[in-house]
Amino acid sequence: MQRRQLIGGLAGAALLALATPSLAQAPIRIGSVLSVTGPASFLGDPEARTLRLYIERINQAGGVLGRRLELVLYDDGGDANRARTFATRLVEDDRVIAVVGGTTTGTSMAMIPVFEEAKTPFISLAGGIEIIEPVKPFTFKTPHTDKMACEKIFEDLKRRGLTRVGLISGTGGFGASMRNQCLRVAGDFGVQIVADERYGPGDTDMTPQLTRIRNVAGGVQAVINADFGQGPAIVTRNFAQLNMGVPLYQSHGVASRSFIELAGAAAEGVRLPAAALLVAEQLPDNDPQKRVVMEYKQLFESTQNQPVSTFGGHAYDGLMILVEAIKRANSTDGTKIRDAIRATRGFIGTGGVVNMSATDHMGLDLSAFRMIEIRGGTWKLID
Amino acid sequence: MDQLLQFVFSGLTVGAVYALVALGFTLIYNASDVINFAQGEFVMLGGMVTVFAHAAGVPLPLAALLAVAVAVVTGLALHRLAIEPARGANAVTLIIITIGASILIRGLAQILFDKQFHRFPSFSGEDPISVLGASILPQSLWVLGGAAVIVAALWLFMERTLLGKAVRATAANRLAARLVGIDTALVLALAFGVSGAIGALAGILVTPITLTSVTVGTLLALKGFAAAMLGGIGNPVGAVAGGLVLGLLEALAAGFISSTYKDAVAFIVIIAVLFVMPQGLLGKRAVERV
Is residue A127 assigned to a domain? Predict the structure, then answer.
């Protein structure tokens, strides 16, 4: 019996070996906990698709260090408690060498202590700046921070000579974090936040909040909405309903087609900072990111039958940074991989050009964000 | 003034949906003492089935009709497959069954549809109407009008038809109703079917404004339940009043006090009301005769 199994196993391995040279060795296990279902599923779903797609491709091309990659993926449904349970399982039972994922800031923050203690490198796909600030030895992230989104928006406001701004944010992790960052950095750009309104995660009507913003003494010159999901779509529609008459800025959290579909004509003229991936075709040919984003976009859209979103792009960046680090470290030791991730320089991803350091575990600067306006029902690159 | 009016419009629109959900709770509660926590899923089905039928090329009115039919069938199936077999069980057990059913319906919907948010076009355009300085969406008028028509139709049904009288008789005293020859099982099935229809209609009316996804039912069930409690559980008029009051409370709290604590404000008011009037605004005091 044992012998037959062995022969069967060898035959199977030989068959696979046609594609990949040495499968006799144990695969390299990479863990992931994503919010594939639940309220953040529109982030988690493309992330999961991207990881599966690229791990398969890497294996077809011979794997990493001559070994296959194996993805162990759990769905936390957007629940931070479940994420933490899965994180423990990844470390203790699955013995993964590194983890890519953690879809939301909330789930990522819940998992960080587990990975830090186990010295497992962790590349989060969530936006909140508290993931990497203060720097934690084994924690990295690929998406732009909410602080950068605020700065990019304020930069644009400054250029347009607008200083009195109303802020409306969701009370969820992303909205709350971005609100704090915007309040913190507004002064650096000479921007004054004159209204600060909030709404809950399931809220379906934000006209009361927007009415308050409109009626602020002295008026507002622009409104910023910090949130992701259906909230910004409703805010955008309410904004048009109330005929606010000032520019509306959204965050990078709405950078997917579904936002334009849900907000409809009301989305016209809305500006947001987003990754280059969103406007891949509009990038000039000499843009360093052009080739990477076009390749990712074409592969994702041709295999998944759905439009690309920047969120899947973050997963691509995270996986590729990890794979390159494993190759450079030439090892699957957690600390060595961590050192190699930290030494990432000039990595061109979908989110921007990444230069990590011991003090910067994200490695992106403001140039990674592009200011985009919604015109004629599609994204238009403005700078 | 225009500010107050804007908050009132906002509150009434949201409140009308809470009212319809609360009405669904009331119908089933009256027929069986069961709080049907799958009530929110009917709203979800109404929106989602319409979205997907419409996307598949079915004209909007037909898609809406189909959605109502799906919700009615779901309501009847919930009664036939889950409530009826457990008919001897006490109300708490039945309530737990409805919670299980709501999770099942949500799970199935997630597989059948998807997890994204959706909407379909408003019934009569998107251009807001200006009323005394406040602006209201035409779809909000549809929601308010639709809710009024549904409440009126339900009232006529209850007051003017034999079947409706049977429902009321069952609500008043189940044993006595059975003794005079009313098929209480049929009445219960009817309550589930009609609740399904009301929920679906609410979902169809409100989706162009609030968007829908497979998860919207949970929160609506909670708010609708709070509204039903506020109005006095078991009283249809109370359910409608409770829904509208809850919607107004939320909007006014967001507008005048603090948008951060608007839900807290609304629920504190509900708790205060129930503390003073445990039977709700319009509920009858429950008296145990010994």
Answer: yes
Query: A104: left (phi > 0), else alpha (psi -120 to 50), else beta?
Result: beta
Q: Which residues of A touch B115 (CB under 8 A)?
A: 37-38, 41-42, 45
Q: How many helices, marked H, and strands, marked E, lie in chain B? A: 11, 2
Strand order in the sheet with A122-124: A69-75, A28-34, A98-100, A122-124, A139-141
- Answer yes or no: do B115 and A42 touch at CB < 8 A: yes
Q: Are B49 and B63 in contact (CB under 8 A)?
A: yes
Closest in A37, A212, A243 to B135, CB measured: A243
- In chain B, whose CA is at the least distance from the CA of A42? B116
List C-alpha distances in Å: A120 to A26, A107, A275, B110, B275. 19, 16, 28, 33, 52
* Per-residue model confidence as pLDDT tens digits over A47-86: 999 999 999 999 999 999 999 999 999 999 888 999 999 9
**Rounded-to-integer distance, Cα B148 and Cα A43, Å:** 39
Domain assignment present for residue A381? The answer is: no
Q: Where is the domain boundary, A214, A242, A274? A: A274
pLDDT score at A21: 47
Q: What is the pLDDT of residues B228-248, one digit of tens each?
A: 988 888 888 899 999 999 999
CA distance A305 to chain B (A): 14
Specify whether the CB–CB gap between B106 and B214 falls below 8 A.
yes
Per DSSP, the residues of B51-120 read HHHHHTT--HHHHHHHHHHHHHHHHHHHIIIIIGGGTTS-HHHHHHHHHHHHHHHHHHHHHHS-SS-B--
Shared-domain flag, residues A267 and A166 = yes
Closest CA of chain A from B39, distance in Å: 17
Give dist(CA A282, CA A381) in Å, integer: 7
Q: What is the pTM of this model?
A: 0.79
Structure confidence at residue A162 (pLDDT): 92
Distance in angstroms (rounded) separating the CA atoms of residues B14 and B210 = 9
Q: Which of B285, B172, B277 is nearest to B230 (CA)?
A: B277
The ipTM value here is 0.79
In chain A, the residue whose alpha carbon lies closest to the alpha carbon of B140 is A205
Domains of chain B: 2-248 (1.10.3470)
**Domain containing A107 — which CATH number?**
3.40.50.2300
Mark out chain A residues that contact chain B at CB-CB < 8 A.
37-39, 41-42, 45, 171, 197-200, 202, 204-205, 207-209, 211-212, 215, 229-230, 233-234, 237, 240-243, 258, 261-262, 264-266
Pick from B6, B260, B262: CB nearest A207: B6
| CA dihedral for A219, A223, A224, A227, sign (positive or negative) | positive
- How close A13 comes to chain B (CA, Å)? 35
- CB contact under 8 Å between B210 and A264, yes or no, is no
Which of B112, B115, B136 to mutate against chain A (most A CBs within 10 Å)? Answer: B115
Q: Provide the residue range defining the domain that includes A163.
A: 146-274
Cβ distance of A205 and B13 shorter than 8 Å: yes
A129 in any annotated domain: yes
Q: How far is A276 from chain B (nearest CA, A)?
A: 23
